[in-house]
Amino acid sequence: MGLDAFAAVCCAIPVLLSLLVVRVAYVLCRSGLPPSKPHAAGLRCLIVLGSGGHTAEMMNILTEIQKDRFTPRYYVAALTDNMSLQKAQVYEKSLIQGDREKIIEDAKFMQIYRSREVGQSYITSIGTTLLAVLHAMWLIIRIRPQVIICNGHGTCIPLCASAFILKVLGLGWSSIFYIESIARVKKLSLSGLLLCKLRLADQFFVQWPQLQQKYPRAQCAGHLM
User: Fold this and answer.
1) Segment 118-147, tens digit of pLDDT
2) In which region does residue 98 sit, left (phi positive, over 0), alpha (psi from -120 to 50) or beta (all else)?
3) Based on the number of CB atoms within 10 Å of its own CB, is 147 exposed (0-12), middle (13-18) or buried (19 or more)?
4) Which of 29, 66, 98, 218 is most exposed, with the fewest beta carbons within 10 Å of its own?
């Protein structure tokens, strides 16, 4: 009986791996395509904030999107980055006219563990990275975002990877929009390079034409600052 069960498991593994490969190929082929059924209501939007200049760029990008189309909005920043969430809260309050309670419905503010702090050793960062990935997966499952907007910082990697895993498992579909920082003129950031090469992002934007020529999969959005 034990041998029969072992044989069954050995036969099932190649089948499961084949199904996984087919599913990943399907997700990659579907990436970047418009949804088959348009959404009448607002889209749950996850906005990943970096720090310093990244947050300033993101705030500038958000002024160009249709607020009623992307709602509710979930802002996520690193656990040690309180300044970015404060800027997001100020921005959301500036959108409110009359009803001050509406901000509670349209915007949520959350924090996530950072994979690696500046100056942290690579050995100790293994544990913090694992914690960040688990936390990111929990946030993605909880929010189930339909749209993720991020720009060149490491905080977005665990979140985008978690969203991609849920796509493969068929547990949700998030369209990932990545905008590379304007400071990246000749080469991508590490975050951008990973998302571009692994094809995790549905739409990948750069702000310099010479960078778009180097990475044909990217689209040049022009200067957003």
Assistant:
1) 666 767 777 777 888 899 999 999 999 999
2) left
3) buried
4) 98
